[in-house]
């Protein structure tokens, strides 16, 4: 993250003696990226964060294998047709992925176990419902429309309040605000569509007691369940520039032009080999001769994965796309408005759009997961020819 935060108790200087009330030393832990050469935070534990008493291999989560998008085709998946999941970690239904990113969907109403993703950052978009996100950094209350960005290696769990539906994005590296939104020192610039005030972080430590506490850990080698001697939620304070945070899509300030603007104006985050964009309610293009919906386009270097989460999609009228739908438009295919949509929007005289969507563009082809194939609308590819 681009700016410094401090929560709870920390000593005046780094790497000095910091004693508990009983006279013992708190255990200092550095959480850092890119081999001590990028963002980091220091966490102060009541107990040693290294004390494990058991390690056991775990079978792969029930996500299934990826298969190539062959024959090459535009796809439509209806997540609203997927059944309930176990929780927001083990219940993820794999939709698509490649070597850079895995995208899944879950609809869960029970707490997850403690979990650590040591392969990369995660970004979880809460489509509906409320939950408490608990971690070694503290707790965050999250709600509909929140992106929750979780740094690599953060021990955390999800506690839903009722049923929560969410899109989960697991990166093979780090997820950050786009560089063009930041100064050379990491401050959000004035042209950025959101800023530091829009981000929410844990405001106080989260302290839990317990012994022999299991934590599911995902690594490049597979899954392991480590049992910690003491509960890992024992951090009395932390400071630094690396931490989980929430950002609500309603706080994204759309950038508009007189004629139609391309998707990079909607970019919200970037990861290794992919970007995340937020399409939000906004004024439509206002040139007197503007065509106020997207032109046909062919992104020759990327696959476009679009999750429709709210509002009205006039450009897709007649395609079957609705709230909860996902469209996948792969490189090698030209896509655009449905037949008749352009003239219909011009005739309507509409000046605003209520569409709300989360888009992930990848720069390597997306393969398909069993979750997507289980809810596919197989007629979608032919809707432009009707």
Automatic annotation (TrEMBL):
Active site: 260 (proton acceptor)
One MF term in the entry's GO annotations: metal ion binding
Binding positions (homogentisate): 313, 335
Required cofactor names: Fe cation
Record keywords: Dioxygenase, Iron, Metal-binding, Oxidoreductase
Homogentisate 1,2-dioxygenase N-terminal domain segment(s): 74-248
Protein residues bound to Fe cation: 297, 304, 335
GO cellular component: cytoplasm
Pfam families: HgmA_C (PF04209), HgmA_N (PF20510)
GO biological process: L-phenylalanine catabolic process; tyrosine metabolic process
Domain Homogentisate 1,2-dioxygenase C-terminal: 279-384
PANTHER family: HOMOGENTISATE 1,2-DIOXYGENASE
Family as reported in the entry's similarity comment: Belongs to the homogentisate dioxygenase family.
Official protein name in the record: Homogentisate 1,2-dioxygenase
Organism of provenance: Acrocarpospora macrocephala
